[in-house]
## 1
Amino acid sequence: MKLLFVAAFLAVAAAVPSSYKPEYKAPSYPAPSYTAPKYPTPSYPSPAYPTPAYPAPAYKKDNKYDDITITSQSDERNLDGSSQWR
């Protein structure tokens, strides 16, 4: 079987014409020479954003309750369309 495969491969390789065209080479063009655009320099007032007229609010966290830690969670969806969440 291997000999048949090798013989078929060699027959195909021998039947291929050897007069292929050389590899295609893409034409090369000179780089375009464009002048760089000249944009006007933007003028912004100094400073760009004025300071606010009032101070930032200082919020204090309400600590009359302890933080809650979640220890387990369950979400059950049944085939009959009912569900239960705990």
## 2
Amino acid sequence: MMLSPDQAEADLSWTQSDPETMLNGLKSAGCASDEPAEIEDRAKCKAEQPLSREEKRRRRRATAKYRSAHATRERIRVEAFNVAFAELRKLLPTLPPDKKLSKIEILRLAICYISYLNHVLDV
């Protein structure tokens, strides 16, 4: 990991593997002490610490705007998926032609039909 000269050593306390060194770094930041801390103090210390990449991702995903956008993308994806199955269904011969088939039935029928067409070409 390359460090720029302007990064402070305190910012890198999470990279140190020695637990005592990490504890000393937290104490110097005021986030850890030998005395029992109040819940509010713990929350304050937690808020002061820089967020990890995963924590930032979780917070971003928790917003209503993100969830709405994700739901919209998912609806579009499922709709495209269903359209593709409908197109495949139109190409498969069945009796009656308008018979409702499940997705797995469409796939199995497509496999059999492709196999049949290969057999016809080989003969």
## 3
Amino acid sequence: MAPNEHAASAPMAEEYEPLQDPGNSGNIKPQILSSEQYSLLLQPKKQRYYKTRAISRQVFAAAFASLSSVSIGFITSYSSLTLQQLRNDTSIDYVDSRDAGWIASVPSISSIVGSLFGGFLMDAVGPRMTLVMTALPCLFSWAFIAFSNSVTLLYIGRLITGIFLGIFSPVPQVYATEIAEPHIRGLMGTFPEAAVALGSLLCYGFGAITDWRWLAVVSAVVPGVPLFLSMLLLPESPQWLVKKGRLSSAEKSIQFFRCPTHNVKGEVDIIHTNILETDGAEISVWEQLRLFRKPQNWKPVLIVFLVFICGQFSGFAVVTAYTVDIFNEADTNLDANNATVIVGVVRFMSTLVSAALLDRVGRKPLLIISAIGSSVGMVSIGAFFYLRTVGSAEGLGLLPLASLLVYVFFNELGYGPIPWLLSGELIPLAVRTIGNGVAVTAYSLAAFIIGLTFPYLTALMSTYLVFWMYAVFSLSGVALGVFLPETRGKTLEEIEKFFAPENKEFKKIPFP
């Protein structure tokens, strides 16, 4: 967790007692310098060099950790390309009416197990080591799919990869949030979602030129190998190290991610003090459950939960899992595989736009814009299917593609990255293990429900009504965005204090 550049010079810093551990003898009170004071200690060129190096290290570390999210993109998008291939593959006992919905949605339900296990694992060994320990097992789990000779093995493979989906989902976000300086935390917080979009795009691209078995091999190797190798070389999250009492290791981690003139001991002191003040020290799961009685703990978890629900019930899991089927059902002259790749490109580009705007515009405006734009996209695709039903879709062959592009662009602008960013920013350290488990469970359960029910809903009612229903759910995010606290530019310590109204010193923090 990185303090704000200017927060260090606030009067509250004088109240901290110096930290002591076996590697830190003496009793010297840390002097916390402002960023202006840092600049006086170095020549301008050296100062710019060291600042650029520090930011680069943070960015590259977050990017490497987000390789696990590239794997998520492959897992969630795998069925979109392969369902059509499975229908024509006589080497496996696949029945479309029986298996399509389950193959698309099984990873979402098994990811709930993974999210709960991953939360405990991350708390026990740290976010970085969690990725190291799970990268290779995830790689080998794809073998069940690649070498399947029955639908049963295919189910098992999808079930196991779904478990890793749940483990991976919160980890890169937590790691990026805890190593980032506040002024780039929004940018780095979008990396995992951008990586998911990149994984989906790569899955669409490889899926268009290879069969479903080789696509499983690619899905394992492309993100898994570089993830394992890169995380071996990076330091652990300083916040987790402080929480575990490994203060010397925390200082080394901060030194790696900050300028040489940065007051490392001062930042460790701030992290340590915040942990003590917010009950974030090493506590059991049962103690975390008891802490949920406090409003400062359950309110932020509830907010993150609701943002996840709104985003998923806007229908995004349907778009990622059934893109090819949607285009095939639209019965236009578009090639379904090529249209899917175009959707993947726009999705990835949208995450880059979101990364550029989050630290400039803020979380609230982007969430509201995302909710409205996503709803417009769903209304439009529903309108096409309605016009086709009444026989008035002549000359509108590009409307399905244009509608999905509008939906994907606006959804990834806010609904995609913001829930994960908020899970790292809002959920207090004291209940982060359970809080992240609740948030990812909400995401997984909603994705499972949407993915599984889509084929049944389109069989029970007109397709356009299904898409219009998703449009209504998407609009609910507008109301949620109005009441969402803006976290742009705030330190994680300030955000935690906001939810503790009894702390008069922090009532002055200007949250809307």
